[in-house]
Design goal:
Blueprint lengths: L7 E4 L3 H12 L4 E4 L17 E4 L1 H9 L3 H6 L2 E3 L1 E4 L7 E4 L8 E5 H14 L3 E4 L2 E7 L4 E6 L5 E4 L3 E4 L6 H6 L6 E6 L2 E8 L13 E6 L4 E6 L5 E8 L12 H11 L1 H4 L5 H7 L6 E6 L2 E2 L3 E3 L2 H4 L8 H18 L3 H31 L5 H16 L7 H6 L5 H19 L10 H18 L1
Helix pairs in contact: 1-4, 1-10, 2-10, 10-11, 11-14, 12-14, 14-15
The structure holds flavin-adenine dinucleotide.
Length: 455
């Protein structure tokens, strides 16, 4: 195990940095965390990138390892499937798993971040210093240049082991940029997002199905909504930045109202603050960051969004970052020093982070486009029949990503084979229950079982 004599500095007390510092403290390390924002437990702050988020098996497992899963689940709302809202007509329901036990959970980002910071500090080994912005890092030397946001003064932290958990725009990552062996790509999605609110109904009731993630798929754009504990829903509108239907085209209250009336009439009726919120709230960017290496010797390591920011359409960014913390913790037990630990961590995680990044982009297309398509609905139905008819033999991408902890890369590859089998069996079908189970058994045992055995 790496020595706990080392000075450790975590940059960023977001979701991943807060959880990481807790993990490190439990291993006996003393940790200083530098966070550029004020303390959100004392000052009303926008919690960050979204108001609520979906936590699933990987994130929950990481919380369980440090004894926090139960408390987190008390504040979470299970979402058992998707409710699809067409422009007109009946809502459609698509369960996420083989039954209701497989669900994802909606959780307030602000609550979770505050909770994790408090739990980290409660170990007595973590000190979080707020309004401390890292402006530069010497990743090889373990030196950080830090600006105090209150006084403007700059100081240096030296001889420290640096954990860069400062999010998708990471200053620690940027400081690694000039290194000859370092490569990074940053792809910004052509879409932005805007959050809107469906308030609670009378007596704090939910105005739509509570235990679901709601989707209004509309081809090149979409609206989604996740439930909150107080009976409200946070809606997120994903829209191209430019083009005929885009943020650029919605410049006036009238244009916005007409657009919602035409494309999301049922949602419009539930969002009384549509115009005010739309024009007052910021429009968010989404980016995929891939970079390597994530480490410099035994001095600096990137984790969470700083190493692998992904677009939010699989609900896995935080889950993946939390899994980083659990994996690193496991390695601390078996590795001799920081350098070995960091190197083993990158070997384990990089390919998996790349896989979920790609799946997240693909899921965007599925959510905005295919969820409303009858062919897609049929294939989802067939998939469910197969999951139930061949338990332990047939597996598919969504459950592997959201309800298991198999490496993302494996989920990606198995998911592709399973998807091919479903498409083949769905050809010519009109009802999922008519799927040919004998043909299915042959395909599954011929293609999927050997692959699973190899891994
Ligand atoms: P961040 O949450 O970005 O935290 C970084 C922290 O570092 C911040 O506190 C910041 O103030 C601080 N910091 C930044 N720069 C500096 C600096 N120079 N010095 C000091 N401190 C600094 N993931 C899911 O798993 N499920 C979801 O449902 C989900 N939904 C999402 C919806 C949207 C719209 C978006 C945009 C993302 C969503 N994500 C979701 C992804 C998730 O938000 C991120 O993966 C997660 O926040 C990453 O955590 P992090 O701690 O690595 O980074």
């Amino acid at each position: 195990m790496p020595s706990n004599e080392s000075k450790l500095t975590v940059v960023g007390a977001g979701l991943v940095g807060s959880l990481l510092s807790l993990y490190l403290a439990r291993r006996g390390h003393t940790v200083e965390v530098l966070e550029r924002r004020p303390d959100m437990r004392r000052e009303a702050l926008d919690a960050g990138r979204s108001i609520n988020l979906a936590i699933s098996t990987r994130g929950l497992h990481a919380l369980r390892q440090v004894g926090l899963e139960e408390e987190a689940l008390k504040h979470a709302i299970p979402m058992r499937g998707r409710v699809i809202h067409p422009v007109q007509g009946e809502l459609a329901y698509q369960p996420y798993g083989k039954d209701d036990s497989q669900h994802i959970n909606s959780l307030s980002r602000g609550w979770l971040n505050r909770f994790l910071m408090t739990q980290a500090e409660a170990t007595g080994r973590v000190r979080i210093r707020f309004r401390q912005r890292v402006t530069h890092a010497d990743a090889a030397a373990g030196t950080l240049t830090v600006q105090d946001e209150a006084t403007g003064e700059t100081r240096e932290v030296r001889d420290t082991v640096v954990f860069g958990t400062d999010g998708s725009g990471s200053a620690v990552r940027q400081a690694m940029q000039p290194r000859p062996d370092f490569q990074a790509t940053q792809e910004t999605l052509g879409h932005g997002y805007k959050e809107l609110t469906i308030p609670p109904g009378p007596g704090g009731s939910f105005q739509m199905e509570k235990h679901a993630l709601h989707i209004w798929p509309r081809g090149s754009f979409m609206l989604i909504a996740l439930p909150n504990e107080d009976g409200s829903f946070t809606c997120t509108l994903f829209l191209p930045w430019q083009g005929p239907v885009s943020f650029d085209s919605l410049k006036t209250p009238q244009a916005l109202e007409d657009f919602f009336q035409e494309r999301f009439p049922d949602a419009k009726a539930l969002i009384p603050g549509l115009v005010e919120e739309f024009f007052a709230r910021p429009t968010g960017h989404m980016v995929t960051v891939k970079c390597a290496p994530w480490r410099v010797g035994g001095r600096t390591l990137l984790l969470g969004d700083a190493a692998h920011a992904i677009v939010p359409f699989f609900g896995q960014g935080m889950n993946c970052g939390f899994e980083d913390c659990a994996v690193l913790d496991g390695l601390l037990e078996s590795q001799a020093d920081w350098e070995e630990t960091f190197s083993a961590f990158e070997r384990r995680r990089k390919t998996n982070a790349d896989a979920i990044a790609d799946m997240a982009v693909e899921n965007f297309i599925e959510m905005r486009d295919s969820t409303g398509d009858p062919r897609f609905l049929l294939e989802k139905g067939v998939e469910k029949v197969l999951l139930n008819a061949f338990p332990g033999e047939f597996v598919s991408r969504y459950p592997l990503v959201s309800f298991s902890r198999v490496p993302y890369r494996l989920a990606y590859e198995v998911g592709a084979i399973a998807g091919g089998i479903v498409s083949e069996l769905s050809r010519g079908l009109t009802r999922p229950e008519d799927v040919d189970l004998d043909a299915a058994a042959k395909l599954i045992r011929g293609r999927l079982t050997p692959f699973m055995k190899e891994h």
